[in-house]
Give the backbone structure.
Amino acid sequence: MPTHTDLGFFATDVSLEDTAAIVTGSSRGIGRAIAIELARQGADVLINYNQNRTAAEEVQNAVEALGRKAVIIQADISDLDAHPKLLDTALNAFGKVDILINNAGITRIADILEETPAQFDLLVNTNLKAPHFLAQRVANYMVKNQIRGCIIYTLSISDTMASDNRTAYCISKAGLEMSMRAYAGRLAAHGIKVNGIAAGVIDTDLSRVRIPDYEEAAEKGYIFMVRPGTPEDVAHATIAAMKLYDTGVVLPASGGVMTPLLNLRTMAALEMNRH
């Protein structure tokens, strides 16, 4: 049984002060919000981007303005050969890595009856295979160096809610949830916490186009959604998942979209329902 001094992210009062984090896909959207919130909580942050260096530099400036260190690295996480430089860059900059936020992901629209193997492979390689093996690399580093760290996955309500025109995305997120749970079980004995966040309809470049459909469904009473989510909502849930006294669990950040509901408000207008 470990003593109270080395419980890491399983301590009663988890502090992120002077920790070091890798956040994939952190130049914009959810990843950007997570990187900045981690810095606000006291962490140094590796900012990963694929194409937009200017956006990454803006995040770096925001992190440094909070008094924390930040380093930028360009890497397409779907390229497994790029993973070593993510870890090495963080180690060179911060001397350690306590946190991995597996956030980067993409989506594509394709009717399930017309989806091609190439489209499917792109989504699964980026959203599932890449974070799975990045987690493996960082976990092995933590185990070898006896770091009681934390790995958080940005998941989605789409790992349980199927979309027939985004099937590969849904499959990749469902698989990613199982990756999270498997690592949680394997790493618990090493004091490493692994949790996930089920992001809902978040106002980002990735999902903004879907917001009107959900708003219409909420207005008709098919679902409940208090409002579209913001990247900051997911960032706050991510911090909660890091401090939570549990591992291998998914915290929702969906604004009520997953709440079971069948409230067909328009039926009230039927004459037969007025008597």
User: Anything to note?
Assistant: The chain is about 40% helix and 15% strand. The mean pLDDT is 91. The chain has one domain: 16-273. The two ends are 66 Å apart (CA to CA).
